[in-house]
Amino acid sequence: MLTCRHWIGQLRRWSSTSSRALLTDQNYVELRLDGKEVAKPLKYPTVWLRDNCQCPECFHAFTRARKSHWEQGPLNVKAESVIYNEQSQKLEVQWEDRHKSSFALEWLKERDFSEETRNKYLHNVYKPLAQLWSKKEFQQVRNEFQYEDILQKDEVLKSWLEALAVQGFAILKQAPNDMNVVRHLANRIGYIKKTTYGDIFEVKSKPNAGNYAYKMVPLPLHTDMPYYEYKAGINILHTLVQSSSVGGANTLTDGFYIADQMRQLYPDYFNVLKSIPVNWYDIGHDGDAKQPFHSLWRAPVICLDVDNQITRINQNTTKRDSRFSVPLDQVQKWYEAYNKFLELASAEAVEFKTEAGDVFVFNNLRMLHGRTAYEDSTENKRHLVGAYVDWDIIYSKLRTLKFPNAQD
Ligand SMILES: [Zn+2]
């Protein structure tokens, strides 16, 4: 057991080789590097170093699994001394309990706690940063890809998935007149998402339609499935037959942009929409499906993540329940805020009309989409086929394409 005085002495002593590694106090190791490579010293909590010891006793490299600290964290183990080994380029830590750890410089640099390194990882590896866009920026953010290229070329698949993550949508051209196009695309990414509407679903005017989308009337701006906790990540909509009538056009608004505008311009409304939960519902049965469904989910219109970033928009007027399970005094102010949201969303909506062979794909957590009214005739019946894929699957695929060696 080290006395307090002894401890301070140990802590303040630079390691012998080029005075590079230092226990700055009981809880941190500082690593100063020669040259211009790293301007600031790298700094690591000792508790984190011990937790992430890479020795075979603590870490099973092949499965990337931590073997240590299953029942309690490494809070009580103190570092006794540290040195930076110039030759092996490793930080070596001697612990009070006689355990030894060593960490490669490159490994440490990638895990540096500076804001710059953290953001680099979050935006390059974790998730690309979304580029929010207004109506007037639509042409600049509109990405098109050839359907066959997506299936054949990994580079194009990567660009497409990046466009979905960054701009929130993309249009694929020249898909064949085949009901399975959406299935092929979902399989190309990974796995299709099955829902109460099946694995693929058809959007066409149906007599006695069980869903408002299956009518010829206009469809207001909405996201699919606000009534699901595990709401579909992207919507893949293949146009097999487009309406030759005036309508049937797509409408689209970047919901993250609208939420961001509200945060900046109407902070009080923003706070209401991010905190008051709405009851979303979907009750019924879909055409041929035998199983009835009763889907309910309570969530605000604007959902934020732990970093206060906008992470999900819920909006579907046709799927908003008359049950509103909030205290009485929240109702009026919610409607006032919601009204502003609707106003901005429709003012920022773009309109375009897909052609037969187009596949319109968009982030369903972000984009509000809708449709103008149309008119079927006996020789022209608008016909779309859709499928969903979850973002867990998409991000995973994107990372395997961007970092093909990470799995080795
Ligand atoms: Zn170890």
Mean pLDDT comes to: 90
The CATH class label of the largest domain is Alpha Beta
Strand content: 25-35%
Number of domains: 2
Strand order in the largest sheet: 9-10-20-13-22-11
Q: In one word, what is the shape?
A: elongated
The class by helix and strand makeup works out as alpha+beta
Structure commentary:
The chain has 408 residues and is α+β, with helices and mostly antiparallel strands. It folds into two domains: 122 residues, NE0471 N-terminal domain-like, CATH 3.30.2020; 275 residues, Double-stranded beta-helix, CATH 3.60.130.10. The protein has a six-stranded mixed beta sheet with strand order 9-10-20-13-22-11. The longest helix has 17 residues. The protein is elongated. The N terminus is likely disordered. It binds zinc ion.
Write a concise keyword list for the protein shown above.
four-stranded antiparallel beta sheet, NE0471 N-terminal domain-like, six-stranded mixed beta sheet, 12 helices, disordered N terminus, oxidoreductase, Double-stranded beta-helix, 2 domains, 22 strands, binds zinc ion, alpha+beta
Short overview:
GO terms for molecular function: 2-oxoglutarate-dependent dioxygenase activity; metal ion binding. With 408 residues, the protein is of the alpha+beta class.
